[in-house]
Design a protein that fits this description.
Elements: H1 3-67
Organism: Piliocolobus tephrosceles
GO cellular component, one term: cytoplasm
Protein name: BSD domain-containing protein 1-like
């Protein structure tokens, strides 16, 4: 076999290998992008649900605490117009 044929064979093999690696890397990158997008959407959705649930509980707790009677040492009117009773 001549030396030129050896170089041609190696060059061809390297080019094919490089192309295969490049295609697999692109494919892996696309999978990672899709996974990251899905993960981001799930985190955003779960965060929004948690915030909504927390706001609902806080609202309920505030509603319960404002309907309770005022302690006897609280004035019936606010001390200052912008300060609520107790």
């Amino acid at each position: 076999m001549a030396e030129g044929e050896d170089v041609g064979w190696w060059r061809s093999w390297l080019q094919q290998s490089y192309q295969a690696v490049k295609e697999k890397s692109s494919e892996a990158l696309e999978f990672m992008k899709r996974d990251l997008t899905e993960f981001t959407q799930v985190v955003q959705h779960d965060t929004a649900c948690t915030i909504a649930a927390t706001a609902s509980v806080v609202k309920e707790k505030l509603a319960v605490s404002t309907t309770q009677t005022l302690p006897s040492n609280c004035p019936s009117q606010p001390v200052l117009s912008w300060v609520p009773n107790c």
